[in-house]
């Protein structure tokens, strides 16, 4: 059988490993951290840093194909890995999604609508952008943000000084605040021969920048659900993408605005584990391994809820609830804001 190499040892890497294992693959995890969620289930954990060239080479040589669970892989590491084994999704997908400015420019180029945005290298640029975009708006670091980190909201131009200080010198973009009625996401996959399959859009609720729940079906008109799925297909094709991608959207009257894309399996796709015959993790493994995609049609309605920090106290109750499927990540230490697991409540 063949072996799949996964960069990153968090919960996404763990669930990818489980899916790969079910299909008869072995997995090797590359992760600098020690006791990580994926290391408990992968066949091998190569613990090394991303600037250890020898370790990167050994990793690539020990696998047949390379994928990843996070988008912030250093370019220097990718340069080494791609000489040895194929990387899916490809470099272009990573390049586009690693940087919010590149990402928004790319999406706009496809004719999709994004929030008004401006490149903010310095204070003068921010003052100029506040004249055009105005407030309310959000200043976001171009790179490395997740779970709402690296963001500052501006209620009025007087917030400019503090917002810029919050960026800690990192290059940023200013985004106009979108007055959305709700947020949805589409998780979609593309195979090596160009087959595309999208899961039903899920409705997302965030709390403090962190995803709280995803509900399917989303309470969005069928027409907009179709728009959302077609947008995902368009992006996948434009990038000649192989694997699963997450597309986050804001719903406004009659129109969808793209928030961001993630070149990987996505937290808002966890509901597929108990709502579909083939879930996002298996779909991703199928794609990167060169298999045909599986059946991602939704057979059940699901509410996925993240278990964050002290939510773990509810696990004994949830374990007694016959409607709930628990997915816990095996993280040793509970910390506020840390994603410890999730629960899929099958509602019909
Ligand atoms: P993720 O963990 O999804 O990668 P992130 O740190 O990249 O999150 P965003 O998705 O950019 O952050 O923003 C987090 C949340 O903040 C969004 O899901 C949305 O609720 C809100 N938000 C972000 N940008 C805007 C905007 N321009 N207008 C309105 N709300 C926004
Ligand atoms: Mg993001
Ligand atoms: Mg997001």
UniProtKB/TrEMBL annotation:
Entry keyword annotation includes Magnesium: no
GO cellular component, one term: cytosol
Catalytic activity: 5-amino-1-(5-phospho-beta-D-ribosyl)imidazole + hydrogencarbonate + ATP = 5-carboxyamino-1-(5-phospho-D-ribosyl)imidazole + ADP + phosphate + 2 H(+)
Gene3D superfamilies, per the entry: 3.40.50.20, ATP-grasp fold, A domain, ATP-grasp fold, B domain
Functional pathway: Purine metabolism; IMP biosynthesis via de novo pathway; 5-amino-1-(5-phospho-D-ribosyl)imidazole-4-carboxylate from 5-amino-1-(5-phospho-D-ribosyl)imidazole (N5-CAIR route): step 1/2
Molecular function (Gene Ontology), one example: 5-(carboxyamino)imidazole ribonucleotide synthase activity
EC number: 6.3.4.18
Residues annotated for ATP binding in this entry: 100, 140, 145-151, 175-178, 183, 206, 259-260
Pfam families hit by this protein: ATP-grasp, PurK_C, RS_preATP-grasp-like
EC class name: ligase
Nucleotide-binding found in the keyword field: yes
Biological process (GO), any one: 'de novo' IMP biosynthetic process
NCBIfam families registered for this protein in UniProt: PRK06019.1-1, PRK06019.1-2, PRK06019.1-5, purK
Family named by the database record: Belongs to the PurK/PurT family.
Entry function: Catalyzes the ATP-dependent conversion of 5-aminoimidazole ribonucleotide (AIR) and HCO(3)- to N5-carboxyaminoimidazole ribonucleotide (N5-CAIR). Catalyzes the ATP-dependent conversion of 5-aminoimidazole ribonucleotide (AIR) and HCO(3)(-) to N5-carboxyaminoimidazole ribonucleotide (N5-CAIR).
Quaternary structure and partners: Homodimer.
Alphabetical list of PANTHER family matching this protein: PHOSPHORIBOSYLAMINOIMIDAZOLE CARBOXYLASE (PTHR11609:SF5), PURINE BIOSYNTHESIS PROTEIN 6/7, PUR6/7 (PTHR11609)
Name of the featured protein: N5-carboxyaminoimidazole ribonucleotide synthase
Native species: Sagittula marina
Name of the encoding gene: purK
